[in-house]
Amino acid sequence: MRINHNVKFLVIAVAIICCAAWIALAAEDSSAQNAPAGLRIAVVDMQKVLSKSKQWQDAAEERMQLLQNAKTTLAKLTEQAQVLKNDYDSLPPGTKEQTEKKRQVAEAIQKLQQVNRDFETKITAHHNKSARLVFQNISDAVKSYAEENDLSLVLKKQTIDTSQTGGAEQNLLLATTEVLYASPELDISAAIIERLNADYSGPIEAK
Question: Theoretical Cys-Cys bridge with 203: which of 6, 58, 98, 163, CB 3.0 to 4.6 Å?
Fold first, then answer.
């Protein structure tokens, strides 16, 4: 019996469709086998965590105290240098007394500059040290929470108010934001804050 061209074409088309469907199912099964089973994801709002962290609050207060001490000390040294400068201006030009006072003014200004540099170094070092400690503790808290709650991935998010006119800092945050949206059910920030504060024993020692 002879099969006409239309029937032959239909048979070939059905065979191709069946073959393609089988390949797609096989690929789907392979992907399912390779994909992680039960992938669980959570997010942490870093701004919220830092604002509620007792350790970070104490570190910020210590930095403010260092800044206040620097401001007070530098104001006194500036006043002393100004007094010496006024004395220098009141002395007759070219006298031995004026030459000596000029040396004292130079020493006072040099001391003021050195003390200012020392304070800047101390404040920067304190900030870097406290930041490293806080972020290390956040990482440890997130890791332990993830392991205890069978989380596969924890992402960092930031709360950005896009209704406000953006300055350079906000534009940078927008450009570097890792999570644009996450369901509130995925946010574990409160649990991380509770864990951080429970493990925190006291203020960071300023040295």
Answer: 58
Return the structure tokens found at 7. Answer: 């029937």
Q: Flag whether 205 is in a domain.
A: no
Q: Per the structure block, which two tokens stand in for 203? A: 């203020």
Taking the chain (207 residues) in runs of 10, the rounded mean pLDDT of each run is: 44 42 41 57 93 94 96 97 95 94 96 97 95 94 96 87 60 68 92 94 60
The one-letter code for the residue type at 33 is Q
Whether residue 109 sits in one domain with residue 158: yes
> Residue 98 domain-assigned?
yes
Q: Does residue 151 contact residue 40 with C-beta atoms inside 8 Å?
A: yes
Measured CA to CA, the distance from residue 29 to residue 26 in angstroms comes to: 5
Is residue 76 domain-resident? Answer: yes
In this structure, what token pair is assigned to residue 32?
A: 């399912």
Tokens 């930095």 -> residue: 63
